[in-house]
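[stage:ingest] chain + small molecule (iron/sulfur cluster)
[stage:ingest] validated
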Amino acid sequence: MNDHQEQHETATVQKITTTQKVVRYTRALSRWVKAGRPVRDESEIIRIFQSDCRACEDYDKRSSSCKHCGCRVSESTIAPLNKIAMQTEHCPLEKW
Ligand code: SF4
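[stage:predict] done
[stage:export] tokens:
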């Protein structure tokens, strides 16, 4: 594979990954809205973030997101900005 092919391959993978992230986020948001927008308690959000996500090898500190599913994870109680806050969502690796 030459440099041009490698760049194209990388760009393609990047594009698919971004598309998958958007699709997953849209589905998560839809599930959450359909369920009546249930949210986890702030103390539970903080506990999950600190004990599971922050210590996880799939946590990307730079983008505050999960490398596995692409969703944002943090201590925020604003559910659309934080997968942990949405009570309908769970860790893709079943850590929470
Ligand atoms: S959601 Fe799960 S896999 Fe993703 S960073 Fe948190 S603990 Fe890790």
